[in-house]
């Protein structure tokens, strides 16, 4: 099993380049265009963070119910909530009367802008990890939603990293506990010490991979306009071979398999939106959390740590400071957010009001956002919560 992802990556990297001719129409549309295609009202806003990043925030206006904020995972964007069209989570929630907002973190295709830094020129632009998502991006997004709606708080739904940043927010800016009335965590990521191979192997190699990235001056990973992303969007939509390499041999080995829910016909749509970029520092921070077995701040090495933290090792985020209500929804077949790691998180959070191991045995990491039949195995639980 260990050699399969290696072979897949070799085939992928050396595949013939070409245009993304195989993407579906929905794979080529952005958030606003998708909303308009499916006859939903949509609004677009620009959010400015305290440290100068410009982020796009999308709204699907609903009924009188309070604002519901959706936050995406790593390598992802707000698109993830709408690419299933009329059966997607964002549109389903709007149709049930919710005022839906979809945020973006810096570094993805909707967050490659800054008041003074150029992401294609300035290395400083990419000096961020999930800490900055939680400390800068999320407060700016929440405040923008509340300012536009005059609401007192938001209900939040996060997927994967989209949950991690809420824990960082509450631990570093405790005043925001009052601005989140419920955090629904789909496939929660916080601890990563029980992930299986091949991800476990990648984590073990992360210090060496980080050194290699620094040597090659790689700051942005799998960005919207990168050569690897272009290869991904060329190869993956190809019949048979694209699904076998991109989904079965790469994605499913990292996230858990579920061919019934991420079917071949959907691939030309999903690969048009994923991946859409993050920083190498962000990936390495997750690697540090996994290898160190602690949910801690970024480790710069003893000398720099002393300058920043006044100690040789980075401090842990105080999860006891996460006072808002949290609902944890977990997949038994999820190789990124394993039930064992979520159990550690559940023990450390002080206000877990709901926990569910989804009954569907093959529930994996992408099923929570891209699953073909989420109305059967996920949405009923969400509706009960919100």
UniProtKB/TrEMBL annotation:
The keyword Signal applies. Residues 67-357 form the AB hydrolase-1 domain. Gene3D superfamilies: alpha/beta hydrolase (3.40.50.1820). Keywords: Glycoprotein, Lipid degradation, Lipid metabolism, Signal. The keyword Glycoprotein applies. Belongs to the AB hydrolase superfamily. Lipase family. PANTHER family: LYSOSOMAL ACID LIPASE-RELATED (PTHR11005). This is AB hydrolase-1 domain-containing protein. It comes from Iphiclides podalirius (scarce swallowtail).
């Amino acid at each position: 099993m260990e050699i399969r992802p290696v072979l897949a990556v070799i085939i992928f990297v050396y595949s013939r380049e070409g245009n993304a001719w195989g993407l579906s129409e929905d794979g080529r549309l952005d958030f606003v265009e998708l909303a308009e295609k499916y006859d939903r009202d949509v609004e677009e806003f620009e959010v400015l963070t305290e440290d100068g990043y410009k982020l796009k925030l999308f709204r699907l206006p609903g009924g009188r119910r309070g604002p519901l904020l959706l936050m995406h995972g790593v390598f992802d964007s707000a698109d993830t909530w709408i690419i299933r069209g009329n059966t997607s989570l964002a549109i389903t929630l709007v149709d049930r009367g919710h005022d839906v907002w979809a945020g973006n973190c810096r570094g993805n295709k909707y967050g490659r802008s800054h008041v003074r830094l150029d992401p294609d020129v300035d290395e400083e632009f990419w000096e961020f990890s999930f800490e900055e998502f939680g400390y800068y991006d999320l407060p700016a997004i929440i405040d923008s939603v509340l300012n536009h709606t005059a609401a007192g708080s938001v209900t939040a739904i996060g997927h994967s990293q989209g949950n991690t940043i809420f824990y960082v927010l509450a631990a570093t800016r405790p005043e925001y506990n009052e601005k989140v009335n419920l955090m629904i965590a789909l496939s929660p990521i916080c601890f990563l010490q029980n992930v299986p191979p091949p991800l476990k192997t990648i984590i073990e190699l992360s210090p060496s991979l980080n050194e290699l990235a620094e040597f090659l001056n790689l700051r942005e990973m799998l960005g919207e306009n990168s050569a690897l992303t272009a290869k991904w969007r060329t190869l993956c939509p190809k019949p048979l071979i694209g699904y076998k390499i991109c989904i079965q041999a790469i994605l499913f080995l990292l996230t858990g398999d579920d061919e019934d829910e991420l079917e071949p016909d959907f691939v030309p749509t999903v690969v048009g939106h994923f991946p859409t970029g993050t920083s190498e520092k962000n990936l390495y921070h997750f690697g540090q959390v996994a290898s160190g077995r602690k949910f801690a701040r970024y480790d710069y090495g003893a000398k720099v740590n002393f300058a920043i933290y006044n100690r040789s090792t980075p401090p842990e985020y105080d999860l006891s400071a996460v006072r808002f209500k949290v609902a944890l929804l977990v997949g038994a077949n999820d190789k990124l957010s394993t039930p064992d790691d979520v159990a550690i998180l559940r023990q450390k959070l002080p206000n877990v009001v709901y926990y569910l191991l989804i009954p569907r045995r093959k529930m994996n990491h992408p099923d929570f956002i891209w699953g073909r039949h989420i109305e059967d195995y996920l949405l009923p639980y969400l509706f009960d919560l919100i």
